[in-house]
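Late entry, written up from scratch paper. The run itself happened at the end of the previous shift, but nothing got recorded in the book at the time, so transcribing now.
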Amino acid sequence: MLEYRVRGSSSVGRMSASQAEGRGFESRLPLHPHPPRGVTVRNQLVEISRRFAADNISPGTSGNISVRDPQGRTFWITPSGMDFSQLMETDLVEIDVASGNIISGDRIPSSEVPLHVLTYQRRPDVQGIVHTHSLFATMFSTLNRPIKAVHYQLARVGDEVPLADYATYGTQELADRATNALGLGNAVLLKNHGLLAVGESLGDAYRNALDVEWVAHLYFLGLQIGEPDVLTHEELERIRAQFKDYGQKP
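Output as recorded:
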């Protein structure tokens, strides 16, 4: 959590890194959609893991994160049951994309290795994966209800966040159902389980996970009053075109 002082007061408050950014506070854990020169994918996986913990996006040690190695034949994944805020590069496990076998690493990898393996196999464009049990996205998964684009913040993810049928965590059945529902999109809800977000970089995948959770929260609040309007496919296509020129270029 980040600390901030209320202007004109001696009171000290606390908020997560993502809340700080959304309210104009400077996070001490900057998100790099694409690693700066000299930063390895393992460096970035540790950085994103620590931000994952600071943002409190998933309870306890739940969730998992991976990044494809630049050579494309393997990926690095977080270990099972360890505190994300304490992870080091030596805790990461390298997995072969083709076989799902462990290549290197001393830790037991995340139980969701099959989910990551099949996602990388079926989506050569995906370079990073973030799986969360974030509160509002997971809530929609329990309602068997996709997350609609009630705000253009979801445009990078897709026209909506679809829902994969339930399967036990860590199984090949879950991997099959999740990747089938994901298709060519960038996020999918796992029924009664959580969220899977992907991206062309690990930073993109993490941003997509945050965007889905924010829109899910907004959608939930809107539903307390009525039925929110949903943006059309045509409008989302216009938004995606404008996003191409948004922000600073690497």
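The radius of gyration is 18 Å.
(Scratch paper discarded after transcription.)
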